[in-house]
Amino acid sequence: MHIYLYESNLNEKRFASALAKVETRITDLGLNGKIIRLGITHSLDTIIHNELKNGAKTIVIVGSFLLLHKAINSVALMLRQSPAYKDVPLGYIPLNTTTKEINSFFGITDIEMACDILSARRVQNLDLGKINNTYFLTFCQITTKNTTLEIDKNYSIEIKQSGDVFVVNLPAGLAMPQEAKAEAKDQTLELFIRTRGRTTPLPRLGSTRSLSVFPFKNLRIINNQHSIIVDQVLQIKAPADISVARIKINLIVGKNRSF
Amino acid sequence: MFNKEHDETGIKEAETIIGQTVKVKGNFHGQGNIIIEGLVEGSVKTNSFLLVGEKAKITASVEAKEAKIAGEINGNIYIAGYLEIKSTAKINGDIKTAHLSIEKGAIFNGNCSMGKDKGGEEAKK
Fold first, then answer.
1. Contact B15, B30 (CB under 8 A)
2. Would you say the ipTM is above 0.90?
3. CB-based burial label for B85 (10 Å; 0-12, 13-18, 19+)
4. Nearest CA of chain A to the CA of B99: how many Å?
5. Which residue in chain A has the smallest CA separation from B23?
6. Number of structural domains, chain A?
7. Are residues A58 and A168 in the same domain?
8. Bridge-partner residues for A7, per DSSP?
9. pTM of whole model > 0.90?
10. Are A140 and A114 within one domain?
11. Is A84 part of any domain?
């Protein structure tokens, strides 16, 4: 059975038309299931826990990428306790979202397509990154300013110019060098450093000189002033330890995904 | 230019890219292709291809299966297969490799020994 988890603010009038579209398409595709409208006081962990115990075959997130991020964490928490539900995939219908680049990375460009993707059920078994006790699917980001990186305890990295540091599981909406390989299936994360490079009067098209990529298993980020943005939707204070999670997650993705 | 250089070497995939704005301290060991354009203070070792760009500077030993060097290396170099030294390269250290080419203009101060059993043995260690 499909379980649809509606984000709490989707009961607002502005989402009525989009939700109607989703529900019509779901009915047309014969994917009807149980709808749970989340409230502010609901615990996502408890709801997902109960639905998985009751035999849910698919959990579908209807709402923002933040809700998907939270759902991934709830499922991962449950998988850590029991691997019995490891085959239950997560689906995603983006609504009220500011993460268009992430959505299109997963091959989802509009809500009707998202419903068709659920129907096609292309499931990808993906690695997750772990920052302290939080799981992430895409990447973490922090400014290079005042940031110290300790990587696999073998070497340290000194960044000579300002820019951003990314810890990448899936480079959703992130332009990495063509030669770099960042995929969420190799049990490795990539540290991607993007600095502004030399100041020149003309932009250097296609230049990768200010880009660096390092694969790693364990990384510590230290910064007393700036926070780390996780999955583009959450902030976590440094210092933080980052590694590949032992848990993998099943995600239903589109045919036109970028990985 | 960086991209052009990558095209010339045929590197389509690199495990590690050390850009010009980064300095790495410590021993850096990898399995895949490595591209270095920045500074490395410590040994570099890979079982695959190593590309050292024009602006790169490495202070310690280097080991790889094959390599193309256009930057500066102050340390010994062990290459199991083919080592290509470009005209912009500055090498202060000994070279052990199976196959070698050095372009006009390159600076090399050190001993060189060649043969199939030279660079290969070190790179396999």
1. yes
2. no
3. buried
4. 26
5. A158
6. 2
7. no
8. none
9. no
10. no
11. yes
CA dist B101 and A3 (Å) reads: 64
Domain extent at residue A171? 131-246
**Which of A155, A159, A215 faces B27 most closely, judged by CB atoms?**
A155
B17 vs A157, A195, A212: nearest CB: A212
Measured between beta carbons, the chain A residues lying within 8 angstroms of B12 are 179
Closest CA to B45 of B9, B20, B22, B15: B15
Closest to A221 measured CA to CA, from A155, A160, A151, A158:
A151
- Do A156 and A225 belong together in one domain? yes
Main-chain phi, psi angles of B36, to 5 degrees:
-120, 120
Interface residue B116 vs chain A (CB under 8 A): no
pLDDT tens column, B65-120? 999 999 999 999 999 999 999 999 999 999 999 999 999 999 999 999 997 655 55
| Residue A196 lies inside a defined structural domain of this protein | yes
Of B3, B19, B32, the CB nearest to A212: B19
DSSP summary character for residue A14: G
Query: A83 and A49, same structural domain?
Result: yes
Same domain, A106 and A143: no
From A121, A154, A181, the end of a domain falls on A121
User: CA A178, CA B3: separation in Å to the nearest integer?
Assistant: 9
Report the DSSP pairing between strands A33-37 and A2-6: parallel
Q: Are residues A147 and A63 in the same domain?
A: no
- Tell me the CB-side half-sphere exposure of residue A143, using CA atoms within 13 A: 8
End of a domain among A91, A121, A151? A121
pLDDT digits 0-9 by tens, A201-258: 444 444 446 899 999 989 999 999 999 999 999 999 999 999 999 999 999 999 888 8
Written as six digits, the tokens of A226 are 């700036």
Contact residues on chain A for B37, CB-CB shorter than 8 A: 209
CA distance A209 to chain B (A): 5
Together in a domain, A206 and A111: no
Sorted by sequence, the CB contacts under 8 Å of residue A203 that are 6+ apart come out as none
